[in-house]
Amino acid sequence: MTTAVDFPKDFLFGASSSAYQIEGAVDEGGKSKNIWDVFIKKQKYLDVFSVRSLKDIPKEYINRVKFIGYSKGSLVFKIVDKIVESITSVDDASIACDSYHKTDVDIALLKELGVQVYRFSLSWSRILPTGYDHAPNEEAIQHYQDLIDKLLANNIQPIVTMYHFDLPQVLQEAGGWTNNFIIGIFASYARFLFKTFGDKVKLWTTINEPRMVSEGYGGFYGIAPFGPDLGATYSGIGDYLSIRNMLLAHATAYRIYEKDFKPTQNGGVSICPDTTWAFPKNENNENDVKASELALQHYVGIFIEPLVTGEFPKIVLESIIDTSERKNFSTWRLVPFTDEEKKVLIGAYDFMAFNYYRALRVTMLTEEDIKKEKDFKKIDQRIDIGDYTEPSIPIDDYNGFYNILKWLSEKCKKDTKFIICENGLKDSDDQLISAEEKTKKKIDYHRGILVELDKAIKDGVKVFGYCVWSFMDSFEWIMGYKDKFGIYEVDFKNPDRPRSKKGCFDFFNKLFQDKTLPIDSS
Ligand code: BGC
Fold this sequence. Notes:
The protein folds into two domains: 18-34 and 92-403 and 423-432, Alpha-Beta Barrel (TIM Barrel); 44-89. It is of the alpha/beta class. The longest helix has 28 residues, at 238-265. The chain has helices at residues 19-22, 35-43, 82-87, 103-113, 124-127, 138-153, 169-172, 181-197, 210-215, 238-265, 286-309, 314-326, 339-345, 367-372, 376-381, 394-411, 435-458, 505-514; strands at 2-6, 12-16, 48-51, 65-71, 74-79, 117-121, 157-163, 203-208, 268-272, 274-280, 352-364, 383-384, 418-422, 463-468, 488-490, 499-501, 516-520. It is built from 18 helices and 17 strands. It is 41% helix and 18% strand. Strand 15 and strand 16 (499-501) form a beta hairpin. Strands 2, 6, 7, 8, 9, 10, 11, 12, 13 and 14 form a ten-stranded mixed β-sheet that branches. It binds beta-D-glucopyranose.
């Protein structure tokens, strides 16, 4: 039997991208270097590969690889052996999808796809090459004006992210997000953007996935040159400094909009945290239940709660203080906000944007693990995410999505409206399954998520939009071009970077246009 899920007629469906992942033209048009340009060169990182579990590492690679972290359910390794380096390919973003030169092509594809919104980001180092607002780059402004004008001319509303992992290198050299000078500098960048594009852009997000950004300043996942890749030495230190500064940078930008632009421009501003839902590994085990609460608060609550109450979640602060006592810190590592700062933070969003990919099953670190552990943040969080490399259980991902929507709507200001700015599944890299099966997996995932979205809307959660990650295959950070999330495929071997529809195109096209999801419930 086939039934259908109907979304509201004014619901916004769209696709997402980010500047560094698609634009290319890294040394063109007056753009200065950002942390990714520098990271790629510095690491001389020639290849990374991911496997689901240790036993899947190809024999010839063993002893030639360094573990660098987790990414969406895979273990990621960097190949460090010289011989292997010479035979592997360089993934960098100097051309990426060449979108800097393909505005018209991309807009035609978005139109063909039938989206109502396009979520993309602006490159800070392209618009303000010195990082500051004293010397804007006209060519960059022209480029983005053109993109925005053409989107609007095609009835596609822009959702614009100000910062998506690509900090101008000049700012990084002064400490980047760990130095509180960034609050004022980000705010002046935001003011510049409101002034320049705010007559046409009505939906703004300030910082994409601040938690991932913070990982770059000392995360135990270690994957993330979303900052300067300071690694575990600063874990539980640099990451908290950056979280605090990002929240204040966001809120300061929000206040500028509220006071000087909103009355005439009538748009809205949000931050855009990544979210997950952590289920206790064993629902009847008290410790596992506690771990799931810790995970939720350390990953998501840490960004939401300060914008509602001005405080970090109690359970987060308590766990950090406990580690500090054990490890003889006499200073705060995550410094609570002052009364002045609280005033800026409380209520600092017009709507709430967020990203969601998967759910986790968690348990607690044992006392023994904690004693052995050197990584401060890992001790703070106490969470054992088990074999994260196992693909999550689809039903967990779907239920987790419903749970996070309900949780957010309870935590956020009354009547907060939500938009999902990224949700997606990378194409399976299993060589043994057919293209049709891969397409089916992807569609099943989105269907599972969308059914829960509909349920949450019916249960009173106010959601006004949903964007698929990603519009097209793109530079997937340390995974280079190996992870493919796109609705459109890009041929990265062809210098012209031609795009083509993937098997899932029709599913999304129909969904976006009809705002109806047929469900096969037989
Ligand atoms: C990021 C994207 C990234 C995607 C898929 C998100 O965490 O915002 O930039 O490409 O996940 O890995």
